[in-house]
Amino acid sequence: MINALFAALPERWTQYEKTLNDAFLEAGLQVDLRTSFAPEVVDYIIYAPNSPVQDFRPYTRCKAVLNLWAGVENVVGNVTLTQPLARMVDPGMTQGMVEFVIGHVMRHHLGMDLHINGQDGQWRDHVPPLAQDRRVTVLGLGELGLACARALSELGFPVTGWSRREKFVNGIACLNGEHGLQTALENADILVLLLPMTPATENLLNTDRLAWLPKDSVIINPGRGQLIDDGALLESLDAEHIGHATLDVFRVEPLPTNHRFWSHPRVTVTPHIASETRAKTASQVIAENIRRGEAELPFLHLVDRAAGY
Ligand code: NDP
């Protein structure tokens, strides 16, 4: 019997108990899944932010910590964690993110607000350009960013992508490095942020780099709040340089009710709903990693602890 500790908030247990047990059965694994064990008998820890487990040292038998979330910034720097850390790459979450990004890009591309908010008898017959005339840049070409970049490219948008390492992707202009970032931003009528939060990406969009964006460009941030210097963004919006910011993630969540983002006419706040780990598909990913651990195969989606993602 394999002992798997579900170390997450109680509402997650309600969401995941059945789907995880179903996935273990499907994978032919005999797993005792519980929210509490003596630490020294635990084989795997299934982990989510705000987990009750913060000190991993007593988990002497644990073969891996399997994160239920794509982002690992809450656990990657934990010095007591010496076991392998895997993050979540879930087809359901990727699909959700593609839908969110496409929806919000299309809102701005088509200028939908003009008609949704303008049902006042005025005939505003401004025809939007075709996708081929709207340049979209995606910062972060990982599981989520690349899927979004590909979907945007398939719709006809000229897409530029930026990542840490050099990449070659058909149909997408892939850039890296600081010079690449400048080019990527200068080519962004619409900018999508899908970078992880690491020391290297914190405040990436500061005053200088926001100025590289074309006037009236739109920022869509489902990555992490810390990627943008909030004060610099507000200044750029107030100066009417950035046209609009659709923000899904924030330094403090929930976003405090008195935060300027809520009332700013050029900001749309969505409450960290761009995409969530989907219990059914994510449970299958967890089961597959436990199967691999038991078969002494390499784990999927291991986090590079030095890079922080
Ligand atoms: P991945 O780890 O697969 O991809 C990260 C991408 O960012 C990679 O392309 C990586 O480059 C790039 N990157 C990392 N650091 C740098 C850097 N310093 N400079 C340039 N590029 C960098 O992550 P995912 O795509 O799965 O997820 C991205 C983020 O999306 C998550 O970390 C999380 O913060 C956020 N997220 C938000 C959700 C929401 O609901 N709002 C839901 C799920 C995730 P390289 O390819 O070279 O490694």
UniProtKB/TrEMBL annotation:
A GO term for molecular function: oxidoreductase activity, acting on the CH-OH group of donors, NAD or NADP as acceptor
InterPro entries: D-isomer_DH_CS, D-isomer_DH_NAD-bd, NAD(P)-bd_dom_sf
Top-level lineage group: Bacteria
Record key words, sorted: NAD, Oxidoreductase, Pyruvate
Residue ranges occupied by any D-isomer specific 2-hydroxyacid dehydrogenase NAD-binding domain in the UniProt entry: 116-274
Leader peptide range in chain numbering: none
PROSITE patterns according to UniProt: D_2_HYDROXYACID_DH_3 (PS00671)
Gene3D superfamilies: NAD(P)-binding Rossmann-like Domain
Protein name: Glyoxylate/hydroxypyruvate reductase A
Organism of this sequence: Shimia isoporae
Biological classification of the source: Bacteria, Pseudomonadati, Pseudomonadota, Alphaproteobacteria, Rhodobacterales
